[in-house]
């Protein structure tokens, strides 16, 4: 189980956080993933 957490701080003081996971087993042949971040972007 690999979960990717990323934090970035830009030179103008903006902080961006991101959390992502891929290859979540649903069945033997079907995999899923998700991603969410502080820019209000997501997928599932």
Describe the structure.
With 44 residues, this protein is mainly beta. The chain has a domain at 1-25. Helix content is 0%, strand content 61%. It is built from no helices and 4 strands. It has strands at residues 3-9, 15-25, 31-37, 42-43. It has a 4-stranded antiparallel beta sheet, with no helix packed on it. A hairpin with a 5-residue loop joins strand 2 (15-25) and strand 3. The model has no long low-confidence stretch (mean pLDDT 91).
Strands, helices and their partners?
Layout: E1 3-9, E2 15-25, E3 31-37, E4 42-43
Antiparallel strand pairs: 1-2, 2-3, 3-4
What global shape is seen?
Answer: elongated
Low-confidence stretches: none
SSE topology string: EEEE
The portion of residues assigned to helices is under 10%
E-strand count: 4
| Sheet/helix structural class | mainly beta
Placed side by side, the strands forming the largest sheet appear as 1-2-3-4
Give Rg in angstroms. Answer: 13 Å
Oligomer: single chain
- Number of H- or I-type helical stretches: 0
Main sheet record: 4 strands, antiparallel
Overall pLDDT confidence: 91
């Amino acid at each position: 189980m690999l979960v990717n957490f990323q934090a970035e701080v830009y030179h103008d003081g903006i902080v961006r956080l991101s959390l992502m996971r891929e290859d979540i087993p649903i069945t033997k042949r079907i995999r899923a993933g998700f991603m969410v971040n502080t820019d209000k972007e997501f997928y599932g």
